[in-house]
């Protein structure tokens, strides 16, 4: 199966390998080259991510209206579906728009995986931080002796970043069931990553790249959440339609207690004095 995928993505894999090679020519360290590659990929995918978050923001604003429709047509799924589609059309929202950027990113992620896997020989004698240090030679079961070997500390950092990304990187949901699902996935996804990483002995180079792109992705998410109002409780509150009755501000000549102000009282006093 892996070879089939590799053959399908050969041009893209070659392109990713070329980018990594070009970066390495400028920065003669594969560790830093992988980090810079992650940054380049994240920046290249910025337009897709921006489109995804814009769609998420639009969908989130419709959540109260969708809940109202669900309550109104609880026993009539056909009517509910028709009203929901009409609501999307009225607000010009495509519920599938947020999925397209994710799907378009998959070929790039697969190509990057194979481009790194296909160059493990280049990483066999590469060191980075504690990887390949004298300490790693003393504890090879825990620390990677090179970027081609598995490093438990780096894998643990990646698992933690995965938890933070899923737990806090997902937009807040007003649906209690969906919010609970997000919490569960925040634990399940990192646990699966840890198991697969240990089972298949992921190279430190691959883990370093994924950890880097996770960090850059979380930074991007934080920026886009704030830009589109998807962070915090305010993201879950949608203003109700404006009421037909507007409340005018209190007149400037009225005191907080409801009586006339000093200038009005002075005018009446002068008027009484003139009558006398």
Overview of the molecule:
The protein is mainly α. The protein has one domain (2-236). It has 13 helices and no strands. Helix 5 runs antiparallel to helix 6 (77-90). Mean pLDDT is 77; it is low at 232-264.
Terminal CA distance: 107 Å
- Given as residue ranges, the uncertain stretches (5+ residues, pLDDT < 50) are 232-264
Give the helix/strand class: mainly alpha
Beta percentage is under 5%
Number of helices: 13
Q: Using DSSP, what is the number of strands?
A: 0
Average of the residue pLDDT scores:
77
SSE pattern: HHHHHHHHHHHHH
Tell me the helix content: 55-70%
Note the main sheet. none
Determine the oligomeric state from the structure: single chain
**Globular, elongated, flat, extended or rod-shaped: what is the shape?**
elongated
How many domains? The number is 1
Task: Kindly provide the radius of gyration, computed on alpha-carbon positions and rounded to a whole number of angstroms.
Answer: 29 Å
Structure at a glance:
The protein is an all-alpha fold and 276 residues long. The chain has helices spanning 2-8, 10-26, 30-44, 46-61, 63-72, 77-90, 99-117, 120-123, 134-138, 152-169, 176-199, 204-227, 262-275.
């Amino acid at each position: 199966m892996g070879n089939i995928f590799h053959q399908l993505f050969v041009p893209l894999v070659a392109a990713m390998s070329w980018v990594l090679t070009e970066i390495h020519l400028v920065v003669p360290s594969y560790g830093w080259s992988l980090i810079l590659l992650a940054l380049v990929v994240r920046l290249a995918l910025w337009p897709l991510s921006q489109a995804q978050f814009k769609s998420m923001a639009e969908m989130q604003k419709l959540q109260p209206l969708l809940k109202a429709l669900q309550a109104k047509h609880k026993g009539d799924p056909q009517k509910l579906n028709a009203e929901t589609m009409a609501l999307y059309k009225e607000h010009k929202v495509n519920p599938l728009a947020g999925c397209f950027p994710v799907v378009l990113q998959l070929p790039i992620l697969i190509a990057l995986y194979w481009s790194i896997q296909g160059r493990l020989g280049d990483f066999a004698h590469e060191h980075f931080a504690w990887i390949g240090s004298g300490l790693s030679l003393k504890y090879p079961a825990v620390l990677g002796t090179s970027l081609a070997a598995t490093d438990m500390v780096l894998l643990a950092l990646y698992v933690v970043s995965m938890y933070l990304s899923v737990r806090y990187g997902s937009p807040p949901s007003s649906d209690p069931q969906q919010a609970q699902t997000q919490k569960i996935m925040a634990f399940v996804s990192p646990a699966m990553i840890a198991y697969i990483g240990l089972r298949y002995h992921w190279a430190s180079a691959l883990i370093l790249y994924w950890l880097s792109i996770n960090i850059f992705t979380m930074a991007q998410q934080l920026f886009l959440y704030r830009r589109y109002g998807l962070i915090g409780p305010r993201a879950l509150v949608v203003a109700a339609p404006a009421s037909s009755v507007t409340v005018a501000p209190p007149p400037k000549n009225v005191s907080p207690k409801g009586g006339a102000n000093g200038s009005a009282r002075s005018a009446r006093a002068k008027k009484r004095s003139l009558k006398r």
